[in-house]
């Protein structure tokens, strides 16, 4: 196939053999969020470029080098969303649904776009489930977000493979004081910093903390610590969060170098990390952003949220072999009919059964075919049972009921009794 007709590098098709696992994952998360009282919101995939510059911050990796930005036919600069928080804040402001201190607990799902170097667990179109809470400023809600994800890892069977890293960035005042101290210290060691960190020192000094460069890391050993600069309010908030995690029994490690890539965080930041996926180890990340809504032109509105990467979590389910058995079988019953008269009767019978058993996964053979070829298709479909309609069955108004996975002998079931019989044999999801 010519290159121009292939998918764009880093943008993947999710093939039919993979979608059951995706739907299982997405369904599990959606049900959990419903149960905790969160409501779904859906935003456009394209926004004005200015939105992301303003919210994410001009001197972040995303805005500096990862956005898919283009001019539309009106000459407006638009960008494929690299993350969901900015658009979510825009939406709540535009519709006034956080006004007057209204609490909103929202979640969204969908593709995000970043021009990064594609590799395992890192793509240019990837998918997130994200969540944002507005107008709750206490540590109780920070804790709830973490507790929910902890429950999710439990339900998915991957709890032992993830670790919670936690830090507090303080209020903007305390972070400002810390930034000053850090800049002063790092400036005194300017020559020992790598080039990227020298640049960040001027533009976004906190980001120097998460450098991968060994020399810079050595300099950081004696650098001032954020924890020493937290004001009383930030400290109390952080203690409140830790007390709640302790109460529920969720283990965590404090990581003073956790600063997150985006500018807008304050107080709590956290990441769920795993060592099962190689370098792309963060599966879920988030934190509090009390200043963001105001920065985007709204009234001061506390906010907190997180986003998880669906590709990475699906990879984890595969790597840890936590794929529930029932999702691999997509057909319960396969109906084979031989001859035109049987085919017509089979269609009508199938619809009657579907009326009574709406959750039954019943596949009707299409494309006719011999005895042998239809049975082959029935078997290949993964169905537990084949239903057979041939001349004999038509004459007696019955259907042959044939177990395909060795659960007993073939029997004849009267058409009228078929739905009731299936209801006893097939566990319906
Ligand atoms: P990373 O450090 O891995 O680049 P990030 O800090 O840029 O992640 P966030 O913006 O916090 O990521 O996004 C939340 C989650 O989305 C990440 O923890 C990760 O699971 C997922 N994610 C981010 N970028 C990608 C990508 N390019 N491909 C696949 N998943 C991604
Ligand atoms: Mg990134």
Automatic annotation (TrEMBL):
<dbReference type="Pfam" id="PF03129">
    <property type="entry name" value="HGTP_anticodon"/>
</dbReference>
<comment type="subunit">
    <text>Homodimer.</text>
</comment>
<dbReference type="Pfam" id="PF13393">
    <property type="entry name" value="tRNA-synt_His"/>
</dbReference>
<feature type="binding site">
    <location>
        <begin position="83"/>
        <end position="85"/>
    </location>
    <ligand>
        <name>L-histidine</name>
    </ligand>
</feature>
<feature type="binding site">
    <location>
        <begin position="264"/>
        <end position="265"/>
    </location>
    <ligand>
        <name>L-histidine</name>
    </ligand>
</feature>
<dbReference type="InterPro" id="IPR006195">
    <property type="entry name" value="aa-tRNA-synth_II"/>
</dbReference>
<feature type="binding site">
    <location>
        <position position="260"/>
    </location>
    <ligand>
        <name>L-histidine</name>
    </ligand>
</feature>
<protein>
    <recommendedName>
        <fullName>Histidine--tRNA ligase</fullName>
        <ecNumber>6.1.1.21</ecNumber>
    </recommendedName>
</protein>
<comment type="similarity">
    <text>Belongs to the class-II aminoacyl-tRNA synthetase family.</text>
</comment>
<feature type="binding site">
    <location>
        <position position="128"/>
    </location>
    <ligand>
        <name>L-histidine</name>
    </ligand>
</feature>
<dbReference type="InterPro" id="IPR015807">
    <property type="entry name" value="His-tRNA-ligase"/>
</dbReference>
<dbReference type="InterPro" id="IPR041715">
    <property type="entry name" value="HisRS-like_core"/>
</dbReference>
<dbReference type="InterPro" id="IPR004516">
    <property type="entry name" value="HisRS/HisZ"/>
</dbReference>
<keyword id="KW-0067">ATP-binding</keyword>
<keyword id="KW-0030">Aminoacyl-tRNA synthetase</keyword>
<feature type="binding site">
    <location>
        <position position="132"/>
    </location>
    <ligand>
        <name>L-histidine</name>
    </ligand>
</feature>
<feature type="binding site">
    <location>
        <position position="114"/>
    </location>
    <ligand>
        <name>L-histidine</name>
    </ligand>
</feature>
<keyword id="KW-0547">Nucleotide-binding</keyword>
<dbReference type="InterPro" id="IPR036621">
    <property type="entry name" value="Anticodon-bd_dom_sf"/>
</dbReference>
<dbReference type="GO" id="GO:0005524">
    <property type="term" value="F:ATP binding"/>
</dbReference>
<feature type="domain" description="Aminoacyl-transfer RNA synthetases class-II family profile">
    <location>
        <begin position="1"/>
        <end position="358"/>
    </location>
</feature>
<dbReference type="InterPro" id="IPR045864">
    <property type="entry name" value="aa-tRNA-synth_II/BPL/LPL"/>
</dbReference>
<dbReference type="GO" id="GO:0006427">
    <property type="term" value="P:histidyl-tRNA aminoacylation"/>
</dbReference>
<keyword id="KW-0963">Cytoplasm</keyword>
<dbReference type="InterPro" id="IPR004154">
    <property type="entry name" value="Anticodon-bd"/>
</dbReference>
<keyword id="KW-0648">Protein biosynthesis</keyword>
<dbReference type="InterPro" id="IPR033656">
    <property type="entry name" value="HisRS_anticodon"/>
</dbReference>
<dbReference type="GO" id="GO:0005737">
    <property type="term" value="C:cytoplasm"/>
</dbReference>
<keyword id="KW-0436">Ligase</keyword>
<dbReference type="GO" id="GO:0004821">
    <property type="term" value="F:histidine-tRNA ligase activity"/>
</dbReference>
